[in-house]
Amino acid sequence: PQTNGICERFHKTMKTECYDILFRRKIYTQLSEIQNDIEQWLEFYNRERAHSGKYCYGKTPWQTWNDAKGLVKEKQLENLFCSSDTHFVKMKADE
């Protein structure tokens, strides 16, 4: 978990909150049935389930992503370009 902890934690959560429950409730006969149930769980995981992880602070990943989009765009433009009268020029790191 030291090199890929976030991904490993997600896999553990998916196993315990999705697979373990789905496979106890239902016998699947079609791959499409499994796919549909996993997609529904992922939708719940990303849009409804609050997370306590390092970056979510009790919000859903979807809320965290939406909150950060504007900030990311602002910071990217701030760090890459400055406006001169008619065009943009790339700034040096120390400017």
From TrEMBL:
The record's listing under InterPro entries reads: Integrase_cat-core, RNaseH-like_sf, RNaseH_sf
Any one GO molecular-function label of the UniProt entry: nucleic acid binding
Q: Which GO terms describe its biological process?
A: DNA integration
Pfam families of this UniProt entry?
A: rve_3
List, for all copies, the residue spans of the domain called Integrase catalytic. Answer: 1-69
Query: Per its record, how is this protein called by name?
Result: Integrase core domain-containing protein
